[in-house]
Write a structure and sequence with these properties.
Layout (H helix, E strand, L loop, with lengths): L1 H16 L27 E2 L4 E2 L5 H5 L4 E5 L2 H14 L21 E4 L2 E5 L4 H17 L6 E10 L7 E8 L6 E6 L2 E6 L4 H12 L6 E8 L19 H13 L2 E5 L2 H10 L3 E11 L10 H22 L5
Parallel strand pairs: 3-5, 3-6, 6-12, 7-10, 10-11
Antiparallel strand pairs: 1-2, 4-5, 6-11, 7-12, 8-9
Helix pairs in contact: 4-7, 5-8
Bound molecules: 1,4-anhydro-D-erythro-pent-1-enitol and uracil (URA).
Length: 323
């Protein structure tokens, strides 16, 4: 299979580029699942990935993963895998990069060397299902020292379109850094604070790249693109333009610089499971100026490349490709 051939070569690349002291960048951290019942199961079927512990050798397939990148669209995550393949000068052709989840059309997954690229769809329920299975997969595969990124698009608040926002805190509708999950009819609240070290490292990486306007700020996560994000252009609208502006102003004062739809559950689940994580989203518009995304398609494509470029730079630096 493609990933087996790659794995050997990639580890050789990495060892060559590691320098004399690998401990400089390796911190031994395991992926912790927080579910005592998993140990009692004879088999774990990762249904939405079409993978399982009995049907697949997960440690062999995924044991060398060091970076996981998730994003909404399957096409974009395939493009990211191809981009990383070229950036890391991996052997073989990008045409041979296969969808590991080809047995299902729920999510797509691509592995290139030590990098896993997966789509998660839109919204909290979709990414949450994917993250449960991803975290179990990484646990079964005995992965260590991982960084997990969400790369995506967002609406900006008071920043120019095309700005990349590295999330400090993923916040809910009342601008609190928390995610509320209903479990057995009760609300469980989890913190959504992200890894400070990875965020600072990403900001430093952005300073080394041209044409990549980047800021750090809080990210508002909503359960809807239209009314939920204060848009006036949905099929329904229950508020006035003034009320919309007031909410966006309050968000801005609370340090919010962009709005998207997955960051709180992403941050919360990674935090509980001991995974270092970051959210890197480009803004497609400034929501103070409007609601519709009218930017030309080719410009949007270039914007969407920006989080990929930044994360790729981070990965290359970590692997010693760039000093
Ligand atoms: C950003 O873009 C999508 C909505 O268009 C959503 O998945 C998000 O978080
Ligand atoms: N994604 C969002 O969730 N909101 C936007 O405004 C743009 C992209």
């Amino acid at each position: 299979m493609y990933f087996n051939i790659e794995r050997t070569t990639t580890m050789a690349h990495i060892l060559l580029r590691m320098g004399t002291d690998p401990s400089e960048y390796i911190e031994q951290t395991q992926v912790h699942v927080k579910n005592p019942h998993l140990d009692t199961m004879e088999e774990d079927i990762l249904y939405h990935f079409s993978l399982g512990t009995k049907t697949h050798n997960l440690p062999e397939m995924f044991g060398d993963i060091k970076f996981v990148c998730v994003g909404g669209s399957a096409n974009r995550m395939k493009a990211f895998a191809q981009f990383i393949h070229n950036e890391l000068s991996l052997p073989g052709s990008t045409d041979d990069i296969i969808d590991i989840c080809e047995g299902t059309d729920r999510y797509s997954m691509y592995k290139v060397g030590p990098v896993l690229s997966i789509s998660h769809g839109m919204g909290v329920p979709s990414i949450s299902i994917m993250l449960h299975e991803l975290i179990k997969l990484l646990h079964h595969a005995r992965c260590r020292d991982l960084v997990l990124f969400r790369i995506g698009t967002s609406g900006g608040i008071g920043v120019a379109p095309g700005t990349v926002v590295i999330t400090d805190k993923a916040v809910d509708h009342s601008f609190q850094p928390q995610f509320e999950q209903v479990v057995l009819g009760k609300v469980i609240t989890r913190s959504t604070v992200l890894d400070e070290g990875v965020a600072s490292e990403l900001l430093h990486c952005s300073s080394e790249l041209d044409d990549l306007p980047t800021v750090r700020g809080n990210t508002l996560c909503t359960d809807d693109f239209y009314e939920g994000q204060g848009r006036l252009d949905g099929a329904l609208c229950s508020f006035s333009p003034e009320e919309k502006q007031e909410y966006l102003q309050t968000a801005h004062k609370a340090g919010v610089r962009n709005i998207e739809m997955e960051s709180t559950v992403f941050a919360a689940m990674c935090r509980v499971c001991g995974i270092k994580a970051a959210v890197v989203c480009v803004t497609l518009l400034n929501r103070f100026d409007g609601d519709q995304i009218s930017t030309p398609h080719h410009v949007l494509l270039e914007y969407q490349q920006r989080p990929q470029t930044l994360v790729s730079h981070f990965i290359k630096k970590r692997l010693g490709y760039i000093l």
